UniProtKB/TrEMBL annotation, chains A, B:
Catalytic reaction annotation: 5-phospho-alpha-D-ribose 1-diphosphate + nicotinate + ATP + H2O = nicotinate beta-D-ribonucleotide + ADP + phosphate + diphosphate
Metabolic or biological pathway, per its Swiss-Prot or TrEMBL entry: Cofactor biosynthesis; NAD(+) biosynthesis; nicotinate D-ribonucleotide from nicotinate: step 1/1
Annotated Nicotinate phosphoribosyltransferase N-terminal domain residues: 8-130
Domain of life: Bacteria
EC number: 6.3.4.21
UniProt family annotation: Belongs to the NAPRTase family.
Protein source organism: Candidatus Methylomirabilis lanthanidiphila
Domain Nicotinate phosphoribosyltransferase C-terminal: 376-436
Protein name per UniProt: Nicotinate phosphoribosyltransferase
Function according to Swiss-Prot or TrEMBL: Catalyzes the first step in the biosynthesis of NAD from nicotinic acid, the ATP-dependent synthesis of beta-nicotinate D-ribonucleotide from nicotinate and 5-phospho-D-ribose 1-phosphate.
InterPro entries for this protein: Aldolase_TIM, N/Namide_PRibTrfase, NAPRTase_C, NAPRTase_N, Nic_PRibTrfase-Fam, Nic_PRibTrfase_pncB, Nicotinate_pribotase-like_C
EC class of the enzyme, as a word: ligase
A Pfam family matched in the record: NAPRTase_N
GO biological process, alphabetically ordered: NAD+ biosynthetic process via the salvage pathway
């Protein structure tokens, strides 16, 4: 699936540049690579995500007649450009790291090689998708690492930045190891398990809290998780206990309770005791409310008897690092490597590959960034995924991506599995790549 | 316009709650209000935005047959609920502050009164839209305040959180006073002016920088803004000067240059001198590259000769405050006021109004938050916008909203126009509202 999007979802400069490319028939093969220049100070690694949506955009690359009409009439573009765009579709090759792969700064995760206008036009939307899903998968992985064995559910849709952000955050966090999401549409779109029971308004709409619990249970007998903090958390737990026998007579079990405010560890301990003593040892405790990986880690460390966490706003906005310093840069045109040398923004030229080496125990030890045709010891991470505009294989099932990500997280060096900033992971630049950069700078290439 | 969105773009608990409401025929009138509990520590005020999209969602409130089929088959919902949803449309009333209005914590900006299931179901998407547009309009207003007379352009689409975020950020920043956006689709959707010329890749795809400039100018003769920092900024400016006469012979003027890296103030001074001495005094200097309102303020204070700024990632992600602590809360049901009392999350009950008082010079002095039927001195900010599911007037033109926002920003207290945190703006809670809260707590209502 891909949320619907228009080819006008691009920066104007892509089209003004295309006007130049088309005018001067600059349609040789161009290679662009997407990479992150520098990891945020609060990230030890990143998790590649968004390739599936990026490939869908490339496959569907067509301007509609409505869009072409608008382009014709807006006064900015020549007939030659509009005619060119009318026939445009994507005929290029794509190489990429599989989604769910751990990566580091300067390592390309997607490489597009196509006639220059095609590869250029898609820049904005490819960055938009790869950046956001990678941002969220990388953030979500931190919660996954600190809460083994816990149920983690994405609750972020409402404060995600728009509809697509909410849906793609559901996908990215699931890919990184979350159990599911509250966002209903993520189920039909991506096949992600959905979770949810009741809000405070359900309780408040009733005059009596117990009556609200009871009605909810009758209406949703297979999914009875009761929100108990609307007025007083422990009193709410006691009401749950006294309601349980009445429900049991009708064959309904209480699956759990949710806490959403106050000192969650303290409430969880008290509520656990109330539930256990009330014969509800099987009912789980689920916690939510401004959570992030740091708070979850504290709660886990405090052995708070919480079985699952709903993590919302801070994950879906990647609150401590709401963007990545990423780029999609021209690395080669017409068979010749290219390099941007702007201050503080220089890039490595050419088509690149990343080789990863592992310790004897299978943990990642170091990477080497090199040019494509410079085989190195280690595992090559970048693989062909699209040839002449066609996928080389069907979409990778989300379950397989999730399994790959799980495996990747277990193979991280210990120091990088922590929330605190660890040592920089070693990414070596090969002699061949350094030589190439030098040759480009000296105009020998 | 409203980006397409499905009614499944909601949290699962809205539907499980509806299953209860429908089962027990809880369809009395419910009033929910959207407000921000507490301003981010880096905001002196917020700017209301997103109402237009929220009203569009309410007007279009219908489940499609595909969605109903999915709901029927997913195993979570009873036939009675699906039948109910099949007939659902929005029949409620909406009151709101006009978009572009300055507001503060605890002040509702949108109030929905409708049969409980309707008002409940829309919670997730209404928050999703109102939160994000308000977030970005409030962030953008800060740049507008520090850069009077400068051209400000939204460059954030690529690192905005998904497609909708990029488009709504274009709208929200324009509303707050930006001149336009790089996001092409914002032009047909919202009528927003679009800006853009070239990226580094255009330069890099040529062997020679001057050749790239020249081709761009011929291909886009009405929009010649040349990016000069790909290799060496001042050398780039000199090339622009030497190219100018050749272009002039063909009737083409160079409109300006863009700087995107390095010490922007220093480069701007040097480039201005090169352009002026080269007979290009009319060419503007446009700057971009990780800008935000703080950097723009510094550049303006340093009297850097920069005429316009492209502001991207940090604005479109509201990087210093990527979310607002906002809520859409049940305040009344079946004619009786309601109040959530969860620790740290208590709300003011009932339908509310905000009155604003001004100083003699027209600047905002203080607000009073009260119940709807408690007239106070000052200007009532909340007005009816939808009755029985129908808008009371056509969409407010974006130009009018922008003018209203401009006026609002000029009427802010001086201390709140600064980027630094000023004193809290006084929002008084009326006796009538305090009495109502007390009565609800004491179960007298």
């Amino acid at each position: 699936m891909n949320p619907p999007s228009s080819l006008l979802l691009t920066d104007l400069y892509q089209l003004t540049m295309l006007q130049g490319y088309v005018e001067y028939e600059m349609e040789e093969q161009a290679t662009f690579e997407f990479f992150v220049r520098k990891l945020p100070s609060t990230r030890n690694f990143l998790l590649a995500a968004g390739l599936e949506q990026a490939l869908s955009v490339l496959e569907a690359l067509r301007f509609t007649s409505e869009e072409l009409e608008w382009l014709s009439g807006c006064g900015l573009f020549r007939r030659t450009l509009v005619d060119y765009l009318e026939k445009l579709h994507f005929t290029g090759d794509v190489y990429a790291m599989p989604e769910g792969t751990v990566f580091f700064s300067d390592e390309p995760i997607v490489r597009v090689t196509a006639p220059l206008p095609q590869a250029q036009l898609v820049e904005t939307r490819l960055i938009n998708l790869l950046h956001f899903e990678t941002l969220i998968a990388s953030k979500a992985a931190r919660s996954v690492l600190v809460a083994p064995g816990k149920l983690l559910v994405d609750f972020g849709l409402r404060r995600a930045h728009g509809a697509e952000a909410g849906l793609l955050a559901a996908r990215a966090s699931y890919l990184a190891g979350f159990s599911g999401t509250s966002a209903v549409q993520a189920a039909p779109l991506f096949g992600i398990p959905i979770y949810g029971t009741m809000a405070h308004s359900f309780i408040q709409a009733h005059d009596d809290e117990t009556a609200a619990f009871e009605r909810f249970a009758y209406a949703n007998p297979d999914n009875v998780v009761l929100l108990i903090d609307t007025y007083d958390t422990e009193a709410g737990a006691a009401k749950v206990v006294s309601l349980a026998p009445r429900l049991r007579q009708k064959g309904i079990s209480i699956n759990g309770v949710r806490l959403d405010s106050g000192d969650l560890a303290d409430h969880a301990h008290k509520v656990r005791r109330i539930l256990d003593e009330g014969g509800l040892a099987d009912a789980v405790i689920f916690a939510s409310g401004n959570l992030d990986e740091s708070i979850v880690r504290q709660l886990v460390a405090a052995q708070a008897p919480i079985d699952g966490f709903g993590i919302g706003t801070r994950m879906d906005t990647s609150a401590d690092a709401p963007s990545l310093d990423c780029a999609y840069k021209l690395e080669e045109y017409g068979g010749r490597p290219r390099r941007k040398r702007s201050e503080g923004k220089a890039t490595w030229p050419g088509r690149k590959q990343v080789y990863r080496r592992y310790d004897a125990d299978g943990r990642m030890r170091s990477d080497i960034l090199t040019v494509e045709d410079d085989p190195q010891e280690g595992e090559p991470l970048i693989q062909p995924v699209m040839r002449a505009g066609k996928r080389l294989q069907a979409s990778v099932p989300l379950a397989a991506i999730r399994e790959h990500a799980r495996n990747q997280l277990t193979r991280l060096p210990h120091a990088l599995q922590a929330l605190e900033k660890g040592p920089d992971y070693p990414v070596h630049v090969s002699t061949a790549l350094r030589d190439l950069a030098k040759a480009v700078d000296e105009h020998r290439l």
